[in-house]
Amino acid sequence: MKINKVLIILGEPNSIFSEILFKYFKSKEFFKSRKKIILIGSILLLQKQLKLLKIKLNNNLNKIKNIEEAKASKLNIININYNNKKKFTKISSISSKYITNCFELALDLIKNNKRTVLINGPISKKHFLKKKYLGITEYISKKVKSKKQVMLIYNDKLAVSPLTTHLPLKYVSKNITKKKIINNVMEIKKFYENIIKTKPKIAILGLNPHCETIDKFSEEKKIIIPAINYLKKINIKIEGPFSADTFFLEKNINKFDVVVGMYHDQVLTPLKTLYHFNAINLTLGLPFIRISPDHGPNEKMLGKNLSDPSSIFCAMRFINKIK
After folding, report:
1. Beta bridge partners of residue 260, listed in sequence order
2. According to the model, what pLDDT value does residue 1 have?
3. How many CA atoms lie within 13 A of 160 on its CB side?
4. Distance of alpha carbon 44 from its chain centroid, rounded?
């Protein structure tokens, strides 16, 4: 499935996303790509922010009313009104309706446009999701009525997937099931075979330190190992459970493509330590490819023009590889 269009939701207006996005659009890589990129967000706000950041577009912004008008090597943008006089301000719920409108339009457009990828800029979980969803992974999945969503933080060398996403630690053990491990691994396998064109080698981490517990009930013995054994029987390349404290040594990670952990920071902390922002957040199990650069709004860096754009470059390079 060769991608020819990229929808980009600009997301939280008070974030570093406009800065890192346009660092990519000023690069040689953008002009070499023949993808039609369609931004969804406020034209006026974007122009104000770029002026503050001293980023010139050289008349490359193409205002369009529908996706058919999009042109390659142009920054096509469909306007979503956002009435805010300041270029950047403190993040609050004021932007929630604007962000909702951006998502609704993008999800409506992607229904009828095959070979299209969705990228969304960062949002504020506190102000936009308002504790109704664990994260944007679950928000989008609910909107498209998918119950198979899997978070995959992808890097060419190693990807990680937390079985539970932005869940408080005290709830993690109750949300680990054999069925969930099997379903998540199957979605990862499908993604690698269909998109990456390879059969992945998958490692599973345990939940407890050293995969041991003083409790009578062991999640490793009762849930994780039975799930691994079942997956082995259906010819999945999978091993584990491994103790998380030593797994991410080079000699171990070189053997695998994906590491499935039991909770968010168990796998995201080592991945970001190893690869910094050279990774992207993918939601598997949707009827389209959804990507988010692996960073948040980063309110402290607004307007400083110092943010690392590595993740958006990773996203675009990943899209260009899809065949």
Report:
1. 161, 204
2. 61
3. 26
4. 27
d(CA 47, CA 149): 35
Q: Is 53 left (phi over 0), alpha (psi -120 to 50) or beta?
A: alpha
The highest-confidence range among 72-76, 120-124, 244-248, by mean pLDDT, is 244-248
User: CA-CA distance, 163 to 172, in Å (whole number)?
Assistant: 9
- Mean pLDDT of the residues in the chain: 91
> What gap in Å lies between CA 186 and CA 234, rounded to an integer?
10
SS3 295: coil
pLDDT at 285 > cutoff 90: yes
Distance CA(118)–CA(102), nearest Å, equals 12
- In this structure, the number of other CB atoms found within 10 A of the CB of residue 170 comes to 7
Task: State the DSSP H helix or E strand holding residue 225, giving kind and residue range, or none if neither.
Answer: helix 225-233
Structure confidence at residue 152 as a pLDDT band (50, 70, 90): very high
Dist CA 239 CA 232 (whole Å):
8
Contact assessment for residue 206 and residue 240, using Cβ atoms and an 8 Å cutoff:
yes
pLDDT tens track for 178-201: 999 999 999 999 999 999 999 999
Half-sphere exposure of 27 (CA within 13 A, CB side): 15
- For 11: left if phi > 0, alpha if psi spans -120 to 50, otherwise beta; the answer is left
Q: Give me the pLDDT at residue 7, please.
A: 95
What is the residue whose two structure tokens read 């004021």? 94
Domains of the chain: 1-146+286-323 (3.40.718.10), 150-276 (3.40.718.10)
In this structure, are residues 198 and 257 in contact, taking their beta carbons and an 8 Å threshold? yes
Quote the CA–CA distance of 5 and 37 in Å, as a whole number: 6
CB 41 within 8 A of CB 116: no
pTM: 0.92
Band the pLDDT of 32: cuts 50, 70, 90.
Answer: confident
Distance, in Å, from the CA atom of 137 to the CA atom of 291, rounded to the nearest integer, reads 10
Phi, psi dihedrals of residue 253, rounded to the nearest 5°:
-70, -25
The whole-angstrom distance between residue 271's C-alpha and the CA centroid of its chain comes to: 14
